[in-house]
Write a structure and sequence with these properties.
Helix content is about 90%, strand content about 0%. It contains six helices and no strands. Helix 3 packs antiparallel against helix 4 and helix 4 packs across helix 5. The radius of gyration is 56 Å and the shape is rod-shaped.
């Protein structure tokens, strides 16, 4: 095959320059579109990551509240346990006192000593008055013996009354201990509820963080894909530009040669490029070295 003329080259190229120019425009537009998607995906990913950071901070705050509430629950449970122990002891004391009192009363009833202290005093006063007036049907020795018996009975009656008063104090102490224990129990339940609420909120926020992380990862993957497509379109755009420039340079060089004008030392290289372009335009394939020559020429 002889050297190509400008008319041959123009015939060979045909509509290729316009086609390649259109392709270059299309690749540039596609590159710009993918770059815009890269920007959008980047902003989207960064937005998700910012939300994740904010929610992680909120999780830490809620965790601190939950841990503090759990510590409070622990302390209140220990306090409640102490009050419960005190209540149990007071109830046992009251139970024992009542049992002793009931046993003593039963014994006294069997012995006929169930009279009240006031009735015993009345009998003692009556006996003493009769003795002083000499109207008593018993001698002094019998009188003294009876008074001694009544004195013992009076003492027992007073003791029983004192025991009843003691029972009242024990009952009051039991009620007071029960109120304190109930209050401590309510405090524990309230603290448990607060701890549970903080934990539930923390769990919900953690779930939201996981969703946002998944969304951020998806956006990042979309960014990588968009960046890869943008880079591919940019490479094709650059190759198209170089092809356009190479074809223009070839046409200019051949036209100048035909007019007998001087050409620079790259004439041989231009001829080589024309051979490559001829191969490319005819539907053939080119090697990496061939592509490098076109790019250097451009």
């Amino acid at each position: 095959m002889g050297a190509l003329s400008s008319s041959d080259l123009e015939s060979l190229f045909g509509g290729k320059p316009k086609t390649i120019e259109d392709e270059a425009t299309r690749f540039k537009e596609m590159r710009d579109e993918w770059n815009e998607k890269v920007k959008q995906r980047s902003e989207e990913r960064n937005g998700y990551n910012l939300q994740v950071q904010e929610l992680i901070t909120e999780v830490q705050i809620k965790k601190g509240i939950r841990d503090e509430a759990n510590n409070k629950v622990k302390e209140l449970k220990e306090l409640r346990a102490e009050y419960s122990k005190t209540l149990k002891e007071k109830r046992n004391n009251l139970k024992q006192a009542l049992e002793i009192s009931a046993e003593k009363k039963s014994q006294e009833e069997k012995e006929g000593k169930s009279r009240s202290a006031s009735r015993i005093r009345i009998e003692m006063d009556q006996l003493e008055q009769k003795f002083e007036r000499g109207r008593l049907s018993m001698n002094e020795r019998s009188f003294m013996k009876r008074m001694k018996e009544l004195s013992s009975e009076l003492k027992a009656a007073k003791s029983q009354k004192s025991s009843i008063g003691s029972h009242s104090e024990l009952r009051s102490a039991v009620k007071q201990a029960a109120r304190i224990q109930e209050s401590a129990h309510n405090d524990v339940e309230k603290a448990v509820e607060e701890a549970q609420q903080a934990h539930d909120i923390m769990s919900r926020i953690s779930d939201e963080v996981d969703k946002l992380r998944d969304a951020a990862n998806e956006s990042h993957s979309g960014l990588i894909r968009a960046k890869r497509e943008a880079d591919l379109m940019h490479s094709r755009y650059i190759v198209s530009l170089k092809c356009m420039h190479s074809m223009g340079d070839l046409m200019t060089a051949l036209s100048a040669k035909e007019r007998g004008e001087l050409v620079d030392d790259s004439e041989d290289q231009s001829t080589g490029v024309s051979d490559i372009m001829e191969q490319l335009m005819s539907g053939g394939t080119i090697s990496t070295d061939d592509l490098m020559m076109i790019q250097r020429r451009g």
